[in-house]
Amino acid sequence: ASDVYKRQILDDGRGFDLAAVQLDPRRGIGLRNMRERLASIGGSFRIRSRSGLTELVADVPEAQLRRLKEA
User: Fold this and answer.
1) Per DSSP, what are the bridge partners of residue 8?
2) N or C: which terminus of the chain has fewer CB atoms within 10 Å of its end residue's CB?
3) What angle do CA 10, 3, 35 make, to 5 degrees?
4) Cα–Cα distance between 16 and 7 in angstroms, integer?
5) Residues near 46 by Cβ (< 8 Å), separated by ≥ 6?
């Protein structure tokens, strides 16, 4: 397994309906932008949300981060 740079954000607010946000092009623009930006550098982005908890996780392989720093 390769080393991965991971960042996790937890929020204990009211949560949101992830499926509804993903289906409505007027909502979740920032979440889509984060996913697209991470994908563009070889990373991944995961979202889980329910009442009382939202979790965002961003992963980027360490080797990819090194290549980006060298560019």
Assistant:
1) 57
2) N
3) 45
4) 20
5) 55, 56, 57
Identity at 50, one-letter amino acid code: R
Residue 21: CB atoms within 10 A of its CB come to 16
Residue-wise pLDDT tens digits, 39-51: 999 999 999 999 9
Distance of alpha carbon 1 from alpha carbon 15, whole angstroms: 32
Structure tokens that stand for 42 in this block: 């070889």
Residue with tokens 């009211």: 14
* Positive/negative CA dihedral, 10, 13, 19, 25: negative
- 37 residue type, one letter: R
